[in-house]
């Protein structure tokens, strides 16, 4: 399920007004617009009258340079330059560093229904923080059926057919001190080449346990038992045990899965009655951590076996030579 490519100004303001120190300078009715791109624009050239390559679909950021330039103009010239800018369907204008907005700007913005905000953050910090927020909002996104938990700091996406025991496994992990991010439906998005998982808003920290119903993990286990987002480091696919299937035994070859163009390790874990899944999940998380530091148990065992075979071969060779020498 792909995310909408529109982000309402009203929603944007309510979400980031504290973080970005935003204040609305225009009438509230101007906020009935939407942001359609994560990119920003500094309209210095447009203010000077050059609109050939003007990115009017972007949020317009006015820093000290732009405000100083506007203040250097005569009142009539400033009004005309700003009017040329306002005829475009701008999503919003944001003035940084707590600089005073020209009266003409606020007047025209109200006339053309373009919201104008002020931020006390420096231009560079504001620019970087806003870009990060918009990148997150406009990142490619899907929602899949599964459970996302954090085990020893590792984000584990648990998938499998309905009724195989994903939620029960996650509940046991939370009871053992680990953390739930989402049950049943996990929203995944790509940020800076990483897969970030989070719950859907409507099922935040609720878990369905067959035979019992819905439980609220945050209410039962406290804030330490949940978290809002987590990078997905590994996927574990729970599968019903089939005697005819061939499962990974030594782990000599890593299997990978592709999620929105990002490859992460995947483990196909057969499930049988009585198997302690939570302990196995902890083992998978610890083993993944060791591998991230360059240690691989299968490689170490292979190297030991190879050394042992080599030593035995050399010993046999020396013994054969000793026997030949005695015969001679």
Question: How would you summarize this macromolecular structure in one to three sentences?
Answer:
The chain has 328 residues and is of the alpha/beta class. It is 37% helix and 26% strand.
Written overview of the protein:
This protein has 328 residues and is of the alpha/beta class. It has two domains: 132 residues, Udp-n-acetylmuramoylalanyl-d-glutamate--2,6- Diaminopimelate Ligase, Chain: A, domain 1 (3-Layer(aba) Sandwich); 157 residues, P-loop containing nucleotide triphosphate hydrolases (Rossmann fold). The protein has a six-stranded mixed β-sheet with strand order 11-9-10-17-19-18. β12 and β13 form a beta hairpin. α7 crosses α9. The mean pLDDT is 87.
Major pleated sheet: 6 strands, mixed
Task: Tell me the fraction of residues in β-strands, as a range.
Answer: 25-35%
What structural class is derived from the secondary structure elements?
alpha/beta
- Shape-level CATH architecture of the largest domain: 3-Layer(aba) Sandwich
Total separate domains: 2
Shape: elongated
* Element pattern in H and E: EHEEEHEHHEHEHEEEHEEEEEHEEEEHH
Distance separating the two termini: 81 Å
The CATH homologous superfamily name of the largest domain equals: P-loop containing nucleotide triphosphate hydrolases
Mean pLDDT: 87
Computed over alpha carbons, the radius of gyration is 30 Å
What CATH calls the topology of the largest domain is Rossmann fold
Tally of DSSP helical segments: 10
> Major sheet: order of its strands?
11-9-10-17-19-18
CATH class of the largest domain: Alpha Beta
Number of strands: 19
């Amino acid at each position: 399920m792909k995310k909408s490519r529109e982000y309402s100004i009203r929603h944007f303001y309510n979400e980031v007004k504290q973080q970005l120190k935003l204040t609305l300078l225009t009438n509230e009715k101007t906020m009935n617009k939407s942001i359609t791109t994560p990119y920003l624009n500094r309209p210095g050239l447009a203010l000077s009258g050059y609109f050939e390559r003007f990115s009017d679909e972007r949020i317009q950021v006015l820093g000290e340079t732009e405000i100083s330039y506007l203040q250097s103009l005569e009142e009539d010239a400033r009004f005309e330059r700003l009017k040329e800018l306002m005829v475009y369907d701008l999503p919003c204008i944001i003035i940084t560093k707590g600089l005073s907005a020209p009266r003409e700007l606020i007047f025209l913005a109200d006339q053309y229904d373009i919201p104008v905000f002020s931020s006390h953050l420096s231009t560079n910090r504001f620019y970087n923080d806003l870009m990060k927020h918009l990148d997150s909002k406009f990142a490619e996104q899907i929602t899949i059926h599964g459970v996302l938990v954090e085990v020893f700091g590792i984000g584990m996406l648990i998938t499998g057919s309905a009724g195989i025991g994903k939620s029960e496994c996650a509940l046991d992990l939370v009871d053992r001190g680990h953390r739930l991010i989402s049950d049943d439906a996990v929203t995944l998005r790509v940020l800076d080449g990483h897969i970030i998982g989070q719950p859907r808003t409507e099922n935040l920290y609720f878990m369905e346990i067959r035979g019992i119903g819905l439980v609220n993990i945050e209410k039962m286990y406290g804030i330490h038992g949940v978290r809002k987002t987590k990078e997905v480091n590994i996927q574990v696919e729970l599968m019903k045990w089939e005697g005819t299937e061939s499962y990974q035994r030594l782990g000599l070859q890593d299997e990978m899965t592709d999620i929105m163009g990002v490859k992460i390790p995947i483990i196909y874990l057969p499930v049988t009655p009585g198997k302690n899944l939570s302990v196995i999940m902890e083992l998978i998380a610890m083993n993944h951590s060791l591998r991230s530091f360059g240690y691989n148990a299968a490689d170490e065992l292979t190297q030991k076996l190879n050394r042992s075979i080599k030593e035995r071969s050399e010993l046999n060779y020396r013994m054969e030579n000793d026997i030949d020498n005695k015969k001679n």
